[in-house]
Specification:
The complex is a heterodimer of chains A (166) and B (608). With 166 residues, chain A is mostly helical. Helix content of chain A is 73%, strand content 0%. In chain A, α3 crosses α4 (70-81), α6 (94-108) runs parallel beside α8 (142-165) and α7 runs antiparallel to α8. The longest helix of chain A is centred in the C-terminal third of the chain and has 24 residues, at 115-138. In chain B, β13 and β14 (207-215) form a beta hairpin. Chain B is α+β, with helices and mostly antiparallel strands. In chain B, strands 1, 2, 3, 4, 11 and 12 form a six-stranded mixed β-sheet that branches. Chain B has a five-stranded mixed β-sheet with strand order 18-13-14-15-19. In chain B, strands 21-20-23-24-27 form a five-stranded antiparallel β-sheet, with no helix packed on it. The chains are: A mainly alpha (166), B alpha+beta (608). At the A-B interface, α2 and α3 of A face β19, β22 and β25 of B.
């Protein structure tokens, strides 16, 4: 028996594998798929059918969770296009890392009156990360895109830490 | 038991039942909405009270409630606070009850009435039977199926116990439904009100808050939070203390019961009046005369109300929303009649709370809607609920790796890959925890899963994909498969008792209070695991790599130093320095042989 991996979220939703998806359209699709697949609407006595229905509904919920956030969507896109690309490109540019660590340091020692400005800077950094990611994907440089995803993680973590402190 | 005729040939009829701490009731779908089923006197509510009369009769509901003062030690109420929990866990609770609660088999609580012992399930079943009889009488037909509601934060054991009670009462429970979710259904029955709603459900004994998104008949729970030990009873308790302070110290159940009833009356009067007076004459047992102003009452309950608001704030945050993004605020539960509750909630959200549906009836009405959906009669509505507590897996050293985060929409599934740590290992134990804390001993053990029949392979080579699936009832199912051979690993589940309410609340509070502390402890464990893996990986890599002697020596030296730190149980800072040193050294070595081998070893360890 061969293990069948879970279909990628783009396939589950029947949408093209692209980075930019219309949020409203995605949500509409989620609601429609939920209506079609939810066990409440597909009640059956057969245990095997039951499990299949559950699996499908879980796939839909999990795909929605992945696709609705641009960063998890990006990860899924890279993994679907080139399996393993995320794992194989974890080494980040030392200069980038130094910058990221500096930002983390700033978050650690931020004074209350600086929170707003720092938040804006981190948000800007994340926006820049995503713009760069989009450019990487556009010229099919998936390893670069993967590194971009890993790099953005530092900015996201710094932002989360900042919100936690604030 | 009933004289009602056998079920007719109409659409399948499923009851929605709100089995409350204080009152219970049933409703059925009627047209586009739902209607509450009333008894012969037109009363919808059945008090959740059971009197086991000395003459052998079992009296349930209003008549039982009126016997509370005559037979305080034989009249059982608030049984919902005991169901699905252990005797030890409810000990504190039981001291406030006039009837006796003792430890029975397996440490489960039993209500002791005379020389008879009753389980909480059987008491609840008596209440459900009464509700069922009332419903059948109102409908003129027999009913066999129901959706029964529970607080969103009820755990597996409590949900299961509630299901058992339904079965004891002769009802098949098609679904255990969360109360705030049910209330939201009642509020948006016609499905035309799209938007985001906050449901604030303050009952007699529990508090729940849920954020829902309603889109064209699809009700999506975005987040849920709550406090399992906070409700109107606690407001009463504060007034009780004031009254009792004027009486000689007593544990007389008659006095306690009379004081409780007087306190409840005071609270209700203070909802409309600025000042309420109480004259309580207990004959030889004493007398109380006192006046309470609303301001005094509000000052006393303000900290409790604030706790509910903290939950609201958290739920809104968990839903990824801001307070101003809420379209509607819905009130459920009798305790939301307290003016301070409404005022504070309105001040926090900036929305006038919606009171279109009677807060006492909303939950049953919503349950009836969902019952009709499950009966297959209505496909225009769909409810998407969430899992209230995270599920996680114990990793090396007692840390918990979250598999499924709280507030994930159910059904949901996660597939994780595991490997073995020892050559020819054929079994792997997985331990599942429920809770929000970082360390397993702070979470509640949900069960152990043992993967058996793995192919005998060198350590790290088997790849076992384990799928954790949470179904629409919020129950976990696990399947596993070895990836290389395709062999289905068999799974044995060792169930344990579910989480207790106290623990859930405590766990949630603790996870906030101890977040920092947890983080440090978790970091130390992670670091230790990393250091151990680095030592193993480096040693293996040294055997494989063909390095110049001086480099081999330098790496060996750093590895030994790290080993020594581990043996000496060095603190996190020292371990980190040791790891960094070794990393620096291996990183400088020309070929990536060592570092890639170490990375590989680390990865295998992470997934173990």
């Amino acid at each position: 028996m061969i293990h069948v991996p879970a279909p990628d979220p783009f396939t589950v939703f029947g949408v093209p594998r692209t980075l930019d998806l219309d949020a409203r359209e995605l949500e509409r699709r989620y609601l429609r798929l939920s209506r079609e697949c939810h066990p409440d609407h597909l009640r059956t006595q057969d245990a095997n059918d039951c499990l299949a229905v559950l699996q499908r509904a879980a796939e839909v919920n999990d795909a929605w969770k992945t696709l609705r956030d641009p960063w998890t969507r990006a990860k899924a896109l890279l993994e679907a296009e080139s399996p393993g690309v995320l794992d194989a490109n974890k080494k980040l540019d030392p200069a980038f890392l130094a910058d990221a660590l500096e930002l983390a340091e700033e978050v650690a020692f931020v004074r209350p009156e600086q929170v707003g400005a720092l938040r804006a800077r981190l948000q800007q950094a994340l926006d820049a990360d995503f713009a760069a990611l989009r450019a990487d994907v556009a010229r099919s440089d998936l390893p670069a895109a993967a590194r971009r995803v890993h790099g953005a993680h530092y900015h996201k973590k710094a932002l989360a830490d900042l919100e936690h402190k604030a | 038991m009933t004289t009602a005729p056998q079920s007719s040939t109409g659409p399948r009829l499923v009851l929605g039942i709100d089995l409350g701490t204080t009152n219970s009731l049933a409703a059925v779908r009627a047209g586009k909405g739902a209607r509450v089923l009333r008894d012969r006197d037109g009363e919808p509510l059945t008090p959740s009270v059971v009197c086991l009369h000395p003459d052998g009769r079992t009296i349930v509901g209003r008549d039982a409630k009126s016997l509370r003062l005559d037979f305080p030690e034989r009249t059982v109420f608030s049984i919902k606070r005991l169901i699905g929990r252990s005797a030890a866990e409810v000990q504190q609770e039981a001291t406030r009850l006039p009837y006796r609660v003792v430890a029975g088999d397996r440490g489960l609580p039993r209500v002791q009435i005379g020389d008879q012992q009753w389980t909480p399930e059987s008491i609840s079943a008596l209440i459900l039977q009464q509700v069922k009889a009332t419903a059948e009488q109102a409908l003129g037909q027999v009913v066999r199926e129901a959706v029964v509601t529970v607080p969103a934060w009820f755990d597996d054991a409590q949900r299961q116990a509630t299901k058992d009670a339904a079965q004891l009462a002769g009802l098949e429970c098609l679904r255990i439904l969360n109360e705030p979710t049910a209330a939201a259904l009642a509020y948006g029955i016609d499905g035309s009100k799209d938007g985001t709603a906050l449901v604030y459900d303050l009952g007699g004994g529990t508090f729940d808050v849920s954020i829902l998104r309603i889109d064209d008949g699809v009700f999506r729970v975005l987040s849920t939070a709550g406090d399992t030990h906070l409700g109107g009873d606690d407001f009463d308790e504060l007034l009780c203390q004031r009254i009792l302070a004027q009486l000689p110290p007593t544990s007389d159940p008659y006095v306690l019961q009379a004081v409780r009833a007087a306190a409840e009356g005071l609270k209700i009067r203070l909802s409309d009046a600025e000042r309420a007076e109480l004259e309580l004459d207990l004959g030889a047992r004493g007398a109380v005369k006192l006046a309470v102003t609303r301001a005094e009452f509000e000052a006393a309950i303000a900290p409790l109300v604030q706790r509910t608001l903290d939950c609201v704030t958290r739920a809104v945050k968990d839903a990824g929303l801001q307070l101003h993004e809420l379209d509607d605020v819905v009130l459920v539960g009798g305790s939301t009649r307290v003016p301070l509750v409404r005022d504070r909630l309105q001040a926090l959200t900036g929305k006038t709370p919606h009171t279109g549906v009677d807060p006492d009836l909303a939950v049953a009405l919503g349950a009836a809607i969902q019952a009709d959906v499950l009966a297959g009669n209505d496909r225009s509505l769909l409810l998407l609920d969430v899992i209230p507590l995270s599920l996680g897996l114990e990793t090396l050293g007692g840390a918990v790796q979250k598999l499924i985060l709280r507030n994930s929409t159910i059904p949901t599934s996660v597939t994780e890959e595991f490997s073995t740590g020892v050559d020819n290992q054929t079994a792997v134990d997985l331990t599942i925890y429920q809770g929000e804390r970082e360390l397993s001993h702070d979470c509640r053990l949900l069960g152990r899963f043992q993967l058996r029949g793995l192919p005998a392979l060198p350590a790290g080579l088997p790849r076992i994909a384990v799928t954790f699936l949470v179904d629409a009832d919020g129950v976990l199912r696990v399947t596993a498969r070895e990836q290389r051979t395709g062999a289905q690993a068999s799974i044995q589940i060792v169930p344990t008792f579910g989480l207790t309410r106290d623990e859930v609340r405590k766990m949630m509070l603790d996870s906030i209070e101890h977040a920092q502390q947890d983080y440090v402890a978790r970091e130390a464990i992670d670091l230790r695991n990393k250091a151990e893996a680095m030592v193993r990986g480096t040693q293996k890599a040294l055997q494989m790599a063909d390095l110049p002697p001086d480099q081999t020596y330098a790496v060996q030296k750093a590895t030994k130093a790290l080993q020594k730190l581990l043996a000496a149980n060095a603190d996190a800072a020292a371990l980190k320095a040791g790891c960094d040193e070794l990393t620096k050294l291996t990183a400088t070595i020309a070929d990536d042989v060592i570092s890639s081998a170490v990375t590989k070893a680390l990865k295998a360890d992470e997934t173990r």
